[in-house]
């Protein structure tokens, strides 16, 4: 924390803007912060509640930023840095215009799991984190909760807690929870019969509001307000509120993320009705791994597999 | 089609203009007998195939989707089918995960001179679909888009 402030403080004259997190309407929900003056830096926070993947803002900010010669500073966790890698690969972000502060990540909190783990339900006034323990303070006193107990699903399968493509890494490296890609949640869906799976998705997706939060939070959903899901010509989805149109919207997201998704889990985190939509993309990521031994966002020089081909490929 | 109100099974075929559409034509000119399930949509190249075509057709209850183009290395545009086969293989592997039967989707390569082979491809795939019966699709309670509505979207 202190190192983060001190580091950015020292560099601030060379930065146009710093993107990080600040306390939101409650300490449990840090929100993205866009800091333009030195005094603002004191608002920065960094802890396991800093869930938002800030790379989602980079293409838009770089497009609008004036060329002042100053860089844009951005704080990225391990998974966020893979999103940056994928954006660089596809030419949406010019890496040299950024100053990337990499933050080794102990894992992020699933707010629902945390609410369940807490004994008190009083509003939280302060949060701190040390040695794997979250200290949650409210008027009922301070409770200590193990981070491991309240970890988000995406963090349980994380292989990249330590940021890639960073200019500086602040903090000690974190041992990854996984060394190999883990698809146990995909396996659980695949263990069902075809009919059960159809019923499972129809049931889950029936809750979808088509609020498009999942799309908006996705760093790789770069079409923004030109999304196919809202286009009338061609009209891929209708205004009907049945499951089929919701399903088609999710197929658009999943297929457009094929061979691109970095499994950051933001789509699932932001869903207000708790649909495990990242599973679609995890399946896609697994297919890309099986067919082309490809992991998005790890190598900024690599070409995404669906934007290229190999004439010598056989069997498919 | 024995019972009167039994829904006729339908296969949507996406055929590349340069090879498979010609192959289907050759089969027709040669009067090779083919099962009547297939409805053909001509595309300029399999490189035009958006995997969403496959998913949307199956989600809406098409009983089968067949994609056919020029043999690899024979693409009219040199590389269109190289891009296509990556996308098609990906969607083939993805379908079962979302509850769509991957056996209802087949992609292959048939050249304009292969009328005989076209007959085999259609006959074999039609047999698979006949065996599987009607496709429930996804969200079967949703009213069907009429062909006119669907087509107007691309006008
Ligand atoms: S689809 Fe979901 S997991 Fe994949 S990059 Fe987008 S937000 Fe992250
Ligand atoms: S965030 Fe959830 S409710 Fe909103 S569109 Fe995505 S899946 Fe549907």
UniProtKB/TrEMBL annotation, chain A:
Coiled coil: none annotated. Pfam families: Fer4_8 (PF13183), FrhB_FdhB_C (PF04432). Keywords: Iron, Iron-sulfur, Metal-binding. GO terms for molecular function: iron-sulfur cluster binding; metal ion binding; oxidoreductase activity, acting on CH or CH2 groups, with an iron-sulfur protein as acceptor. Residues 252-282 form the 4Fe-4S ferredoxin-type domain. Signal peptide: none annotated. InterPro entries: 4Fe4S_Fe-S-bd, 4Fe4S_Fe_S_CS, FRHB/FDHB/HCAR-like, FrhB_FdhB_C, Helical_ferredxn. This is 4Fe-4S dicluster domain-containing protein.
TrEMBL record, chain B:
Keywords: Iron, Iron-sulfur, Metal-binding, Oxidoreductase. Residues 11-133 form the F420-non-reducing hydrogenase iron-sulfur subunit D domain. Pfam families: FlpD. The keyword Transferase does not apply. InterPro entries: MvhD/FlpD. One of its GO terms (molecular function) is oxidoreductase activity. It comes from the Bacteria. This is Coenzyme F420-reducing hydrogenase, delta subunit. It comes from Desulfacinum infernum DSM 9756.
């Amino acid at each position: 924390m202190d190192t983060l402030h001190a580091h950015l403080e020292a560099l601030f004259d060379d930065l146009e803007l710093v993107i990080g997190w600040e306390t939101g309407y409650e300490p449990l929900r840090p929100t993205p912060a866009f800091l333009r003056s030195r005094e603002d830096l004191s608002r920065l926070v960094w802890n396991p509640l800093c869930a938002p993947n800030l790379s989602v803002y980079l293409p838009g900010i770089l497009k609008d930023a004036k060329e002042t010669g100053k860089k844009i500073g951005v704080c990225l966790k391990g998974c966020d840095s893979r999103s940056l890698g994928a954006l660089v690969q596809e030419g949406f972000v010019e890496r040299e215009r950024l100053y990337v502060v990499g933050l080794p990540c102990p894992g992020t909190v699933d707010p629902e799991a945390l609410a369940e783990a807490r004994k008190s339900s009083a509003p939280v006034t302060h949060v701190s984190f040390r040695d794997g323990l979250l200290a949650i303070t409210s008027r009922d006193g301070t409770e200590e909760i193990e981070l491991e107990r309240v970890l988000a699903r995406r963090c349980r399968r994380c292989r990249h807690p330590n940021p890639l493509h960073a200019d500086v890494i602040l903090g000690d490296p974190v041992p990854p929870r996984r060394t190999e890609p883990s698809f146990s949640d995909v396996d659980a869906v695949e263990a069902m019969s075809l009919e059960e799976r159809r019923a499972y998705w129809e049931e889950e997706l029936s809750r979808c509001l088509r609020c498009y939060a999942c799309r908006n939070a996705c760093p790789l959903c770069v079409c923004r307000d030109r999304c196919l899901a809202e286009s009338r010509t061609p009209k891929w989805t209708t205004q009907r509120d049945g499951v089929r149109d919701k399903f088609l919207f999710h197929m658009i997201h999943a297929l457009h993320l094929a061979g691109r998704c970095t499994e950051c889990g933001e789509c699932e985190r932001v869903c207000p009705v708790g649909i495990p939509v990242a599973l679609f993309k995890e399946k896609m990521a697994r297919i890309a791994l099986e067919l082309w031994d490809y992991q998005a966002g790890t190598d900024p020089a690599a070409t995404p597999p669906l934007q290229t081909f190999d004439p010598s490929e056989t069997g498919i | 089609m024995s019972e009167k109100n039994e829904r006729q099974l339908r296969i949507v075929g996406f055929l590349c203009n340069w090879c498979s559409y010609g192959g289907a034509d050759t089969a027709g000119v040669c009067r090779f007998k083919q099962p009547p399930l297939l409805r053909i949509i001509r595309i300029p190249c399999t490189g035009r195939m958006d995997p969403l075509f496959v998913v949307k057709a199956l989600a809406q209850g098409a009983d089968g989707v067949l994609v056919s183009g020029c043999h690899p290395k024979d693409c009219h545009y040199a590389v269109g089918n190289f891009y296509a086969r990556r996308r098609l293989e990906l969607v083939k592997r993805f379908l079962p995960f979302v509850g769509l039967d991957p056996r209802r989707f087949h992609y292959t390569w048939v050249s304009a001179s292969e009328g005989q082979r076209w007959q085999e491809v259609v006959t074999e795939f039609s047999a698979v679909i006949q065996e599987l019966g009607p496709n429930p699709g996804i969200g079967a309670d949703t009213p069907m888009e009429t062909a006119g509505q669907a087509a107007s979207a691309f006008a």
